[in-house]
Automatic annotation (TrEMBL):
The active site is at 44. Keywords: Isomerase. It comes from Sebaldella termitidis (strain ATCC 33386 / NCTC 11300). One of its GO terms (molecular function) is isomerase activity. This is Phenazine biosynthesis protein PhzF family. GO terms for cellular component: cytoplasm. Belongs to the PhzF family. InterPro entries: Phenazine_PhzF-like (IPR003719). It comes from the Bacteria.
Length: 287
């Protein structure tokens, strides 16, 4: 099996979020995909299959289980299909539904891939805040009480935790195995602390993403789905707006910095979200 390695949300190999991309997977069983993802070891590997409903079908696997949707692996897969097979993908079938995607080559020569996500949903966190802080290695006082802790989803549930200061992020040491006992409402959710201070002057928000223990990984370097729901959180709980474009930075604390561009808009009672980022080829793996 040949796996193309792509780094998403960056134009520099070795940065951003790595994803494995595997072509022509129609003859693979679910068990074979899961085992391959475990051997590859990236936070997500995307397997490309034929689709009767869209241009391509994508299935996403962590080393531990299958995901309904994955932002960075989708962007990696679309870029790989263009570079390796000269295919321009507009629609992607996922377990979350049909996702619209687009590739834009700018005058600067940079190529950005955008993908729409499912309308954002939120649910208030009703758990123990002190235990939550302990589970990511910080103190309860580091959490910003002026903003709500919310479960959020644009296809995958994560817990959004507002943090007061940027310097707290480098002190975080997650105990992922403790998450289910703290996240009693959604025990399989990931954890996503964020703040409004940033390293990059062009960014609006900063985040880290700690994996659900069921995923078999600890931290996701630069997270597309969580950044998308951060945009919806911004206009819902930070500044009441009908639409907003924001830039989200992530990965600085683990040497894998990347940037995600989020567009969120209130339409017909929904919070519609689109994310955009780059992706770069970073080599091949053979199993």
């Amino acid at each position: 099996m040949k796996i193309y390695k792509y780094e998403a949300f960056t134009d520099k190999a070795g940065m951003g979020n790595p994803a494995g991309v595997v072509f022509e997977c129609d003859d693979l069983t679910e068990d074979e995909m899961q085992k391959a993802a475990g051997k590859i070891g990236f936070n997500e590997t995307v397997f490309l299959l034929a689709s009767k409903e869209a241009d391509i079908k994508m299935r996403y696997f962590t080393p531990g289980h299958e995901m309904n949707l994955c932002g960075h692996a989708t962007i990696a897969g679309v870029k790989a299909l263009f570079e390796k097979e000269n295919k321009k993908i507009k629609t992607v079938e996922t377990l979350s539904g049909i996702i619209d995607v687009n590739m834009e080559v700018q005058n600067t020569g940079k190529t950005f891939i955008s993908m729409k996500q499912l309308p954002a949903q939120f649910e208030e966190f009703k758990g123990d805040k002190a235990k939550l802080a302990e589970a990511i290695g910080i103190k309860e006082k580091d959490i910003d009480d002026d903003l709500p802790i919310m479960y959020g989803s644009t296809g995958i549930w994560t817990l959004l935790i507002p943090i007061k200061k940027l310097d707290i992020f480098s002190k975080m040491k997650p105990e992922n195995k403790r998450f289910p006992e703290v996240l009693t409402q959604k025990p399989r959710a990931s954890v996503h602390p964020f703040c409004l201070e940033t390293y990059d002057k062009d960014a609006d928000m900063h985040g880290r993403h700690f994996s659900s223990p069921f995923s078999g990984t600890v931290e996701d370097p630069v997270t597309g789905t969580a950044s998308g729901v951060m945009g919806a959180y911004y206009i819902s709980f930070i500044k009441s707006l009908d639409e907003k474009n924001i830039a989200v930075e992530q990965g600085q604390e683990i040497g894998k910095s990347g940037m995600i561009y989020v567009k969120v808009k209130k339409e017909y009672g929904n919070l519609n979200v689109e994310i955009k980022g780059e992706a770069v080829y970073a080599g091949e793996i053979f199993l």
